Amino acid sequence: MQEGYFVIFLKNKLQRFIGQIVSRASGKSETDFSCIDFTKIIDLDSFGNLMLVVFNDFFLSIDFGNSGTMLVNKTKKAKADFSLHFPHSEINFYSCEAKILKGKPNDYFQFPTDILNKKFDGELALTKLQQHFAEENIGKALLEKSIFVGIGDLIRTEVLYQAKIHPESLVKNIPEKKLIYLIVSAVNFADELVESYKNDEVQSKALIFEKKICPKDKTEIQIAISAETNSRIYICAKCQKLY
Ligand SMILES: [Zn+2]
To answer: What number is the average pLDDT over the span 96-108?
Structure first.
């Protein structure tokens, strides 16, 4: 899945379009996007891997799925799945799914769960973890969308490694201080990824994700793949304690 930091990075590239009027919206799907024509973009937002383009009484939700991308004033060979056209520019979305939703994003999304949103509520996340996911593995709980939005395989691998917690640890056995450290680390790491994306440095931010050997003790990194979701997590069994 495209992680939240990637969508934020793309959204930040579109700031100059806020206040501009869309001359035409076009898409491959059968959805009728004509309500967007001649309408002003009043804001841009994101929620996990959704980019939200806000108009007066409706908004567009663009799902970046597993491999979505976006190009401004450029095209790929394949036809874009969805495009917004302006008098002198265009934004093209590939491998994305666009939907029109009535009302405001706040009516649909719990922004305090999004680790990249200013409204993220770490205390609420801690409470949910301890009250509703006490018997769950922390590795799985970090992907729980009712607690955290914007965490994917890279972030959960790296923050569990930073916090020295084995992903199979039960939430109830992990000291509260460690859980708080983990939540704060996830927020900070996601912010760093947005910054490093600008400079093409995401790979260098990862210490064990997609790596073979732990940089601290040269232990071989293990990979665990979930049969249900196909998500991957990388583990150093020596550095990360099983609670
Ligand atoms: Zn290690």
So the answer is: 95
Identify residue 42 by its one-letter amino acid code. Answer: I
d(CA 136, CA 2): 24
pTM: 0.87
Whether 83 shows a pLDDT value over 90: the answer reads yes
Name residues with Cβ closer than 5 Å to ligand 1, which is an ion: 214, 216-217, 219, 236, 238-239
Tell me, in angstroms, the distance from the centre of ligand 1 to residue 204's CA. 17
DSSP 8-state secondary structure symbol assigned to residue 89: -
User: What are 28's strand-pairing partners?
Assistant: none
DSSP character at residue 202: H
Ligand 1 centre to CA of 163 (Å) is: 12
Q: 183 CA to middle of ligand 1, Å?
A: 21
**Among 85, 41, 71, which Cα is nearest to 59's?**
41
The predicted pLDDT at position 194 comes to 87
